[in-house]
Each structure stands twice: as C-alpha cells, then as structure tokens.
Design brief:
heterodimer, A: 314 residues, mainly alpha, 2 domains, two-stranded antiparallel sheet, 2 strands, disordered N terminus, B: 365 residues, six-stranded mixed beta sheet, 9 helices, transmembrane helix (chain A), membrane (chain A)
C-alpha cells in the first residue's frame, strides 16, 4: 500500500485532501446542530447525573451537615418502603385506568361524531372543551363544583337517589382523581379516533354493506382493526402524559388520605420538598426513570411497528 | 340468474337541481353483460350504485327478478360488487377477504373454505390465499376483488370501473378474462366504464349515458353503425367520428368546395333545414390522388400522422377552410408527412346525418 502511494504521489495527495475537506465539510454541516445538542445535554443529562450522585448520599435538608456517602442504602430503602410500592401501584392504576377508560369513552364519542346529525359542530366543540382547560383549573372544578359533599353538583344530581352527603374525595380519592383525568383526556382520544374513523376508505364500508355485514360486524371486522393503531397511539401518548400527573393530585387530594391517591411524581415531590430527604427522593427518581424507560421503549416500538404502514393500501 | 330493470329510475342529489340520473329506463336480460358507458359526470356510476343500494332511488323503481328493490338494503339484494379501488379489507388475508360475504351470511367454515378454494383456483390465486392485500400486485388485488364477488354466487354482478387501476397490457388481458368468466357463469352483469373500447369489446349490450340521461341502448355493432345522436356518434369509436356542421346544397351538403350528395331518405328526413351535422368515420374517407380533379375531391393539409402499423391516422385541416379539421384512416404505410397535401372523398353510403340543434339522427326511420 505504502509503495503504491510512493509511486503515485499525486493521487495520494488528492485522496488525503479530499478526506480533509470531507471532515471539515462534515463539521460545518453538523455545527449548527451543536447548540441544540449542548442545550439538551445541559438541561437533561447534567441534572440526571446530579440526581444519580444525590441518590448515593444520605442528605436531609433539615439536618445541615448530615450529608454523607452511603452507597446504595437509599435504593434498598426504596424497595423496602411499602408506601413506595403502594404509590407505584396507584400510579399504574391511575395511569392505565384513566387512559383505557378515556379511550373507550373517546371511541364511543368518535363513533357518534362520525355520523351526520343536527348540531354536530356545536356538540363537537363542547366535547373538546375539557381538553382545553388548564389541568389545575379542571382539578379545582372537580374538587369544588362537582364533588364537594355539600355544594357539589354530583351530590345534587344524585340526591333524589339518596346519595347526598357522599364525601367523594375522601371516600374514593383515587377514583375521584381518575374521574377528573378521564374527563380531561377523553376529548383527546376522541379527536384521535375520529381522525382514524375518517381515514377509513368509504368503499370498504360500502363493500361490506353489499357483502351483507351488519353494522356490528362492520365495526368488529373492519373498523376496529383499522382503528387498532390509532388506539395504540392514543394509549401510548396518553400514558406518557398521565404517568407524570402532578397538578390534579396536588389540587384535589394532596395524595391523601395517607398515600391512597398519591402517584410517583407526587410522592417523590412530597419526599423531597416536604420531607426534605434529598437522597431518598433522588433514589426513587432514578428507579422511576429506569422503569419508565423500559416501559416507554416497548410502547414506542409497538407504536412504530403499527405506523410502519404494514396495512396501508393505496 | 336474474333480469334487472331500471324503470324511470332517478337520483336527485339536491332538490330542484339537475338529476344525477334522470328517468333511466334499462332492461338487463338474464345472463347478459350490459356496459354503462359515458364521460365523467354522466351518471353511470350513480346508476350502478342505485342498483347496489348504495344510493337511494328518488323516483321510479329498480327491479331485480321482478322484485322492486327501492327499499331493500344492499345486503338483501343478492348482488355482488367489484369496486374501482377493489375495496379489499386490509386487515384480512386474501382467503378471509373472499370468505367475508359467506361468513356474513352465516355459512359454515368448511363450506366457506371450499368455495374460496374453488374461486381461487379459477382466478389463479391459490398461492396467495394467506397474504394480506398489501403484499399483492394491482392485478392480483383486482382478481381478489373478483373472487370475493364470485364466491357469493349472486343474482347480479356489479362492476364499477374494475380495470381502471391496471396498466394497459393487464387491462386488455383482464378484460378478456372477465368477459370469458361472465359467459361461463352466465350471471347478469352491469359493468360501468368510461372507456368505450371496454364497452364495445365486453358488452352484450351497451348503454351510453351523458348528463344523467340514457342516449342509446343497443348492441355494440348497432351503436357503431347507427348512433342515435351526435353525442353517441362522437363518443363511440376511436379516433372519434368527424362531426362537421355543413350547409345544405341542392342535392346534399357542401364541404371543402365539393358537393356531397345525401341519400334520398336522409335528404327527406332533413326537410328544410339549411345546415346539418354530418358524421364521417375516419375509415369512411377514400384517399385519392392529389392530382385528381378539384371538383370531386377535398384538398387538405396534414398536421399529424399516427402510424399504428396495420393502419395510420392522418389529422389534417382543409386547404380551403383551415378551421375545419378532419381525421382520415389510411393504410399502414403512408408516405405523407407533416405539411403534405392530401385529397380525400367521403364515402357517401356511410354518412351519418344529425340535426344541428338537437343532435338527433336523421335517416327517415
């Protein structure tokens, strides 16, 4: 190889020159992306590394000077903390429960809105409204206007059936929070599924009618398979948002009674900023991030497979 | 097997506006393949969808085997339809697609599989039965759509431009297959197309529609030889018939400085009209030598020559009247090129004469 290069110096010089230009050109093309990359690293990776560092410390803010390196004892505490397990379970129930109920209700409403009827525009706008309300305001609305034991609308409506005076928020704290979440997220699912319904080719539906399918068969055999990927998208997106729910819990129940309606973000917040146990809450944060990463990568893989156009007919 | 009758059937999308299908009268004899042909917006697809039950019948009636189906839902009409885009169910395999109408009728699994296998053999789809439509070519998808219609063994097949998404070669091949299969199954078929070649080659009878109205309903040779009006004359045949609006002379009409005598019966039917629309098919011109006497031939100048091998078409404008263009069929090998002069003479035995205003055929019959 070297001999060849020596025999033909001119092309060799050219090759070297081209490589250098390529490298410079490559950097010139990448350079405009660098600020975004640096910014992303600064705001996401540095806090995470700091959290990792804190999670290995015993550090309580109310006892100055108590900070010391304790290796993994915080993690051991996390896994032996029965409250943490309770809260983790709450998070799963709250997130998946709300998402699935919202998808089911959204599907029903989307099917309704996919038909022609008088006043459809008005109905659609009204149905979308909950999604447009600030989550804090929505939570307040549910806590005071709807679920308040003496002044709430729910008890007022149910009073003829003898249900007045029910303390919804303290008797059914998790269900109350979920009701508010479902109410806020149903419109999103509805819009997504409505888009899905409207993308279904009308000639397939007509073919099914000619082929003798009843309305229910058309729904089960054609519409539902067609909507599958839209439902998956709704579930994944809804889960990503709802697993982070904080404001609704904070405004409606403060996670109580006890930790009956607390989810992981709220519990970690409690531990960090009410209990001032930085090391403990950092360890919880790390555990949650790892679990979320595993769950999210499975969910996203499912999603990308669904949208790879496997069943698209053109 | 069934007879299909459209009896003054109309479809009116917006009350007061022009109907999409206007009082259509049509009878499809048992076992016939009838083609509905016409340009876009002629109402041919709407008429088919009325028969399918996918569009309401606003006035008149449609009968299948004597039964009025105006209020019968599509699934109870005992019809099978092939759609332009095939309308295959993307989440189902080929076998499931073909079995779907049978499943919806509650047929048991084994009989379903049996019928699908038979239809697949007939259509050459056996090896694709487990594939999803996505993994098939256009021609294969088209055959699956046909298969889904065949397994039903319906009273009537409805086909809505089933070949329009295929490439030219595939289309010719499939055209013959459909005609052959329809003959074999002897199921009454209504076939919609905008392609007059498909109409002429496939139809036992052809219904030409324009603007929602039936223009003519006849066998292909009759349509070609005796078009009922100027629209049919211009629509059927490729290249289209030359339709020229010409002034009357004492014995006929004048074109390009010569007099074209009209047969007696046409001349009588034309009465006192002083202008007539005269139709001359490209093959009804006789090419003459360019040195012929000016009194008996029409001189023209060639604009375009289309050589098809067995024949050629000369697009030319008249030397005397440059705004009048004509198409002339010539032999397979012609020497003329762009700008060359030619001399032609119409064969007066095969003239088609129409009223200038109404376009109706004038021949005294």
């Amino acid at each position: 190889m070297t001999a060849t290069l020596e025999e033909r110096p001119a092309p060799a010089a050219n090759v070297g020159g081209a490589a250098m230009i390529d490298r410079a050109e490559g950097w010139r093309r990448r350079a405009p992306l660098l600020p975004a990359l640096v910014f992303t690293i600064v705001v996401t990776q540095i806090p995470f590394i700091l959290t990792l560092f804190y999670s290995l410390q015993s550090w309580n803010l109310v006892r100055p000077g108590s900070q010391e390196f304790v290796w993994f004892s915080n993690y051991v505490d996390v896994f032996t903390d029965s409250q943490f397990r309770q809260v983790a379970l709450n998070t799963v129930v709250m997130t998946l429960g709300s998402v699935l109920i919202a998808v089911a209700l959204g599907l029903l409403l989307a099917l309704l809105l996919n038909r022609q009827f008088l006043g459809r525009g008005v109905v659609r706008t009204l149905l979308i409204t909950p999604f447009l309300i600030t989550p804090v305001a929505a939570a307040l609305l549910w806590r005071t206007v709807l679920l308040d034991p003496t002044l709430g609308l729910v008890n007022f409506v149910l009073s003829p059936f003898g249900a007045s005076g029910t303390e919804w928020i303290s008797q059914f704290p998790l269900a109350s929070v979920m009701a508010a979440l479902v109410w806020q997220w149903t419109p999103f699912m509805m819009l997504l599924l409505l888009a899905g319904l409207q993308s279904q080719p009308s000639d397939q539906l007509e073919a099914a009618r000619v082929d003798g399918a009843s309305a229910w068969s058309v729904f089960r055999e054609l519409t539902l398979p067609h909507l599958r990927r839209f439902i998956e998208l709704g579930v994944v997106l809804g889960t990503i948002y709802l697993v982070n729910t904080f404001d609704t819990v904070y405004m409606m129940t403060q996670g109580g009674p006890g930790v009956a309606s607390a989810n992981l973000p709220f519990y970690i917040y409690q531990r960090a900023f009410l209990g001032f146990d930085i090391g403990q809450s950092a360890a919880m944060g790390v555990v949650v991030v790892i679990i979320t990463l595993i769950a999210a990568s499975f969910a996203l893989r499912l999603l990308f497979r669904s949208f790879s156009g496997e069943e698209e007919l053109t | 097997m069934a007879e299909v009758v459209f009896d003054q059937a109309s479809r009116i999308y917006t009350p007061g506006a022009k109907p999409a299908v206007d009082r259509l009268d049509l009878t499809v004899a048992d076992g016939d393949l009838v083609v509905l042909v016409g340009p876009s917006g002629s109402g041919k697809s709407t008429a088919l969808r009325m028969l399918a039950g996918l569009e309401p019948i606003d006035a008149g009636s449609v009968r299948i085997n004597g039964r009025d189906v105006v209020d019968v839902p599509p699934k109870d009409r005992d019809i099978a339809m092939v759609f332009q885009n095939y309308a295959l169910y993307p989440s189902k395999t080929v076998a499931e697609n073909m079995a779907f109408p049978l499943k919806m009728r509650g047929m048991d699994k084994e009989e379903r599989a049996d019928r699908v296998r038979q239809a697949a053999e007939m259509l050459g789809l056996t090896e694709y039965l487990d594939r999803k439509p996505k993994a098939l070519s256009g021609g294969q998808r088209q055959r699956v759509a046909m298969g889904r219609a065949i397994v039903r063994e319906p009273q009537v097949f409805l086909m809505d431009e089933p070949l329009s998404n295929l490439d030219a070669k595939m289309r010719v091949q499939t055209r013959a297959q459909i005609a052959e299969m329809q003959n074999r199954l002897a199921v009454s078929t209504v076939y919609v197309t905008h392609d007059q070649v498909e109409a002429m080659t496939m139809g036992d009878k052809v219904a030409v529609l324009a603007d929602g109205r039936l223009q003519q309903y006849a066998t292909p040779p009759e349509l070609y030889d005796r078009p009922a009006n100027a629209f049919v004359a211009g629509f059927i045949g490729s290249p289209a018939m030359n339709l020229l609006e010409l002034p009357r002379s004492s014995t006929g009409v004048t074109l390009g400085g010569i007099e074209i005598p009209l047969p007696r019966d046409i001349s009588d039917a034309a009465g006192s009209r002083d202008r007539l629309t005269v139709g001359i098919r490209p093959e009804d011109w006789v090419l003459e030598s360019t040195d012929s006497d000016g009194g008996s031939v029409i001189k023209a100048v060639v604009d375009v020559v289309e050589e098809l091998g067995s024949e050629s078409y000369l697009y030319a404008h008249l030397a005397e009247d440059t705004s009048t263009s004509i198409v002339v069929r010539g032999p397979g090998r012609v020497k003329v090129r762009f700008g060359d002069p030619i001399a032609v003479r119409p064969n007066s035995d095969t003239l088609h004469v129409f009223d200038v205003e109404s376009g109706e055929r004038l021949d005294g019959q």
